[in-house]
Amino acid sequence: MQKSKVDMSFSTNSHNYGQLQEIDRPFSEDVLLETVDSTQTYARREYKRQYYNQITFIRALHQTEGRGQFDRKWECQSKKNILTTIIFPFFTRIEQLKNVTSVVGYTIVKLYKELYNLNAQLKWMNDILINCQKSVGILVESEQIDNKYVLFVGIGINVNWCTQGATSLKENLGKEVDQNQLYLLLKERVIKALYDLNDFGFEYLRVRMNKILYKRGQLCEFVDSKTLQKVYSGILEGLNEQGDLVIRDKVNYQRAIVGLNVRLKV
């Protein structure tokens, strides 16, 4: 296991969201594991013992029991993809916890455009799609300690390999992708996004996030996340000021969908 200290300093200037500044922010730790059951499971298991009260980036080259939402298995070949959990122990806005997943997703969509000129979309609320195929999965879990929430942000990016039915960066770009370049920027941008969400709330991102929302303006079906049985259908209007997904049914009744119990059917 390799570890290194990384100095991460971020702005709290409300006029410059996410600009790097030399201000008092905590040091961070980088952890690289050759193999682990799951970066998410490891992070939660070891947080109080090894990484308490510090931002920590845990990356594995191989997972034996990688998991996504509802303990679904996340598959990956060794050393082909980015498998990481970011520990962020300084979140205080309980009303914004529900928006962490979608904000992290939006951050990655922007990164895809910046680095690779790829037009990815955010499938509410935890998948990133390229040409309607899954490229990234996000799993956010939290734990309250005193007056703060420790976020465990699990991210799996299909960089140079993917399962059947999904897609990878390599598949879309036609070449092997430098994982380290992507990972370095991913860490920086996700931490900036978490600080900004905690400091400024969701509203300042809403318009931009709605522009990259998968199936916005289209008739969609929503299913129970566990049983996959249909529960709603309607036109996907977009995200409201609170970060909830709004749909409109055939009699123009608007419904806000909150939480993880319902998912958008592809």
UniProtKB/TrEMBL annotation:
PANTHER family: BIOTIN PROTEIN LIGASE (PTHR12835), BIOTIN--PROTEIN LIGASE (PTHR12835:SF5)
Gene Ontology cellular component annotations, sorted alphabetically: cytoplasm
Keywords: Ligase
A Pfam family it matches: BPL_LplA_LipB
All copies of domain BPL/LPL catalytic, residue ranges: 34-158
Family the UniProt entry places it in: Belongs to the biotin--protein ligase family.
Protein name: BPL/LPL catalytic domain-containing protein
Gene Ontology terms, MF aspect: biotin--[biotin carboxyl-carrier protein] ligase activity
